[in-house]
């Protein structure tokens, strides 16, 4: 379902695609989850990622750097890996997971859509991963684009529309709360990507509008995308093994709503990761 950089894979640039299956949308009930679900969800989506990042940073700091032919000579080797700057961190992981980012490598240089792209993976379901490109600037608003895949006229008509990928789809990211009063999470409509960050599709737009009208979220708590990226089962793994993508875990402060449209995000994530290794 995505652009495939090697000749053995089909390319979404040459093969027409439609958006994935529609979601079954529940009403905005805002019912409370059990205390166990709240605690488990908080640990799963926040604590364990930060804990893992601290473990990686500590392990790398205590391990002496050994010269290797695997080190990218274009990257300074005397910079610690990974770098943790306050609440910002990023480090390489071996397998893609929900909430991670894919960073295009030099093998995708010249590929117009994916050159220096940072893709946030929204899901890694059985049919294949789905994500959106974060670092492409907005050129127009939803109203100006007259988008046919994202019917958000009215409440969100003046919001910027970003290019999320070559597959036809309408998606949006939205900010939730980091505490127990997370109305976005309690709605049961939107999928959590990481702590305080959710995504929805065109079908859940009505609930998003309702939440704005109730004052539970603001119009500035959303980022809208036309198009997404997707891979068939096993295709992304093949592309990673071919060296087309570096897989990284990042803190929410790096890949949150504020990063959408940031043309410098590719360089920032690589800088936080430190010296780049080819796994």
Report on the architecture of this protein.
- The chain is an alpha+beta fold and 279 residues long.
- Helices cover 23% and strands 23% of the residues.
- Strands 1, 2, 3, 4, 5, 6, 7, 8, 9, 10, 11 and 12 form a twelve-stranded mixed beta sheet that branches.
- A hairpin with a 2-residue loop joins strand 1 and strand 2.
- Mean pLDDT is 77; it is low at 2-27, 30-44 and 66-80.
Quick structural overview:
With 279 residues, the protein is an alpha+beta fold.
List the helices and strands and how they pair.
Layout: H1 35-62, E1 84-85, E2 88-92, E3 101-104, E4 118-125, E5 128-133, E6 140-141, H2 142-145, E7 160-163, E8 167-175, H3 183-186, E9 191-194, E10 197-201, H4 205-213, E11 222-230, H5 235-241, E12 245-250, H6 252-255, H7 265-273
Parallel strand pairs: 7-11
Antiparallel strand pairs: 1-2, 2-12, 3-4, 3-12, 4-5, 5-11, 6-7, 8-10, 8-11, 9-10
Offer a few descriptive terms.
7 helices, globular, 23% helix, disordered N terminus, twelve-stranded mixed β-sheet
Element pattern in H and E = HEEEEEEHEEHEEHEHEHH
Low-confidence segments: 2-27, 30-44, 66-80
Q: Report the helical percentage.
A: 10-25%
The fraction of residues assigned to DSSP E strands is 15-25%
The assigned structural class equals alpha+beta
Mean model confidence by pLDDT: 77
C-alpha geometry:
globular
Distance between the termini: 25 Å
Rg calculated over all Cα atoms: 19 Å
């Amino acid at each position: 379902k995505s652009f495939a950089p090697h000749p053995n894979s089909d390319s979404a640039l040459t093969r027409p695609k439609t958006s994935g299956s529609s979601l079954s949308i529940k009403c905005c009930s805002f019912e409370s989850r059990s205390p166990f679900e709240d605690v488990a969800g908080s640990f799963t989506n926040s604590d364990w990622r930060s804990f893992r990042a601290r473990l990686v940073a500590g392990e790398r700091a205590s391990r002496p750097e050994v010269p290797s032919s695997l080190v990218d000579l274009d990257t300074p080797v005397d910079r610690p890996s990974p770098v943790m700057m306050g609440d910002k961190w990023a480090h390489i992981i071996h397998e893609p997971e929900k909430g991670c980012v894919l960073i295009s490598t030099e093998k995708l240089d010249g590929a117009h859509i994916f050159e220096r792209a940072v893709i946030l993976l929204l899901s890694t379901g059985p049919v294949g991963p789905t994500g959106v490109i974060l670092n492409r600037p907005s050129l127009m608003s939803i109203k100006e684009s007259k988008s046919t895949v994202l019917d958000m006229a009215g409440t969100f008509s003046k919001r910027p529309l970003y290019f999320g990928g070559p597959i036809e789809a309408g998606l949006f990211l939205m900010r939730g709360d980091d505490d127990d009063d997370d109305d976005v999470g309690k709605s049961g409509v939107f999928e959590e990507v990481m702590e305080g960050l959710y995504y929805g599709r065109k079908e859940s737009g009505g609930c998003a509008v309702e939440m704005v009208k109730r004052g539970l979220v603001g119009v500035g708590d959303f980022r809208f995308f036309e198009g997404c990226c997707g891979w068939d089962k096993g295709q992304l793994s093949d592309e990673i093994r071919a060296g087309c993508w570096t897989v990284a875990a990042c803190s929410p402060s790096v890949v949150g709503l504020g990063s959408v449209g940031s043309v410098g995000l590719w360089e920032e994530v690589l800088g936080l990761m430190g010296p780049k290794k080819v796994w």
